[in-house]
Amino acid sequence: LLTTTGVFYYYTQKDRHPGPQEAFDPSKKTLVILGSGWGSTSLLKSLDTDDYNVIVISPRNYFLFTPLLPSVATGTLEPRSIMQPTRYITRHKKRRVAVYEAEAQDVDPVNKTVTFQDTSEIKGEGASTTIPYDYLVYAVGAETQTFNIPGVKEYGCFMKEMKDAEKFRERMLDCVESASNPNSEEEVDRLMHMVVVGGGPTGVELSGELHDFLEEDLKNWYPELAPKLRITLIEALPNVLPMFTRELIQYTESTFKENKINVMVRTMVKEVKPKVVVVENEKKEHVEIPYGLLVWAAGNVGRKITRDLMAKLPADQNNRRGISVDDHLQMKGASGVFAIGDCTATSYAPTAQVASQQGTYLARVLQQLAKKERLEQQLQTLRQENAEPEAIEATVKQINKASKIKPFHYSHQGSLAYIGSDKAIADLPFFNGNFASGGVATFLFWRSAYVSTLFSLRNRTLVLNDWLKVKLFGRDVSR
Ligand code: NAD
């Protein structure tokens, strides 16, 4: 025990007290990274900052472990447990990395500049700043798709950012506390009806977490209300989780049935009003469903800055799903720009796993490009100095080698989703075929997989601690 504590203490202190960093080097090229999500963070983690002067611009100064966001929404995890400051990574780099908490507003791919604005409350709507780049990594992600359905933005909650999870928790507790006040039966029924729109992994995981909150805590905190809580999952397609195998879809649907989560498939939300949601069912009838809390998890769409950037390159950028890139993740039509993650339109699903592999790949590409440039400079010097032909030939060979950049290859490690009551589903590409599993063992696998994917020892410790805390004391309903 003493040794473990000692090792743990050594690592935490090493993490807390980084050594001094080198300053920016004017002879190096400028690499600007937009975003602090999965793509950017895995890039930053693997990037050799000795090669470039690196600037990170993102409206939030942290990385958010999005797969566990539904757990924060229902109070299983604390917000900070799944947030990691971007400086947590950059402060350990050999050369200083500038981190600007600001919103990128415009990218000029011709003059190679980025314009951004400090949107912090203290500054208000401050003036914008424009900086040049030699290389740009465009990893701004996507935003929640509303399809311009009336009332979604006004009355629904999203599940994309930390503020969404916090708003969800506030509203959920609002509903429960209001329902505890003297009310008509009809009003209590409405307030205790939680509606989740979208049967993708986000909607399914959130429904599962909501069920856990009901079973494990609501029954104890509000025994008179617990029987009234209803969860409805609305999905436009014939089934939930279309990306999983038939077997796992059935397993999820039957688990939801056991857990009394009402799944309404082939049902399309048409409008969200303050207290009712209007849906169109299979028979094309419009039905009004009263709700207390509505969560909108109906997929993602590109951001405005991405649409604006694409509009500047109409000949090369015309895919409605997002930015088109080549095999090396170079944005088509824009020299020096790489695009990764959910803002791109590739043959892969827009998942955290893809973005993170793209980030790691790009770190290698950027290292290779820096090496190639160093060799080219070396060659120039050799020629100027009339060096031996052998030396020139050897450098040319090295340049040719460095110019051969392998294309990006995605290696699918499988898909996992938590479905509630300590059960998870896993679709794993083992043995050249799909290995599908669901159940409690898969749940333990899901937990360990997520914990090991968390980027830092600090976050792993916090998440494990939260899980233990909830097992021992239950979720807290104060706010
Ligand atoms: P999604 O796009 O996967 O699912 C959204 C669902 O909403 C779709 O099935 C769609 O048919 C439905 N929908 C859209 N409009 C609707 C309407 N008006 N009425 C009813 N239903 C409607 O979205 P997501 O779940 O947020 O996932 C986004 C991406 O992130 C996906 O690529 C997903 O694989 C990934 N992701 C993966 C995990 C995981 O692997 N555990 C978790 C979260 C997200």
Q: How many helices?
A: 14
> Proportion of β residues?
15-25%
- Domain module count: 2
Q: CATH fold name of the largest domain, please?
A: FAD/NAD(P)-binding domain
Q: Major beta sheet, specifics?
A: 5 strands, parallel
CATH class of the largest domain: Alpha Beta
Give the overall shape.
globular
Distance between the termini: 37 Å
Rounded average pLDDT: 93
In spatial order, strands of the major sheet run: 5-2-1-9-19
Return the CATH architecture of the largest domain: 3-Layer(bba) Sandwich
Give me the count of strands. 22
Radius of gyration: 25 Å
Helix and strand content put the structural class at alpha/beta
What features would you describe in this structure?
- There is one protein chain.
- A 5-stranded parallel β-sheet has the order 5-2-1-9-19, with no helix packed on it. The chain has a 4-stranded parallel β-sheet with strand order 13-12-11-17. It has a 3-stranded antiparallel β-sheet with strand order 6-7-8.
- It contains 14 helices and 22 strands.
- The protein has 2 domains: 21-141 and 303-402, FAD/NAD(P)-binding domain (3-Layer(bba) Sandwich), CATH 3.50.50; 152-300 and 413-473, 3-Layer(bba) Sandwich (FAD/NAD(P)-binding domain).
- Strand 14 and strand 15 form a beta hairpin.
- The protein has 479 residues and is α/β, with parallel strands linked by helices.
- It is globular.
- The structure holds nicotinamide-adenine-dinucleotide (NAD).
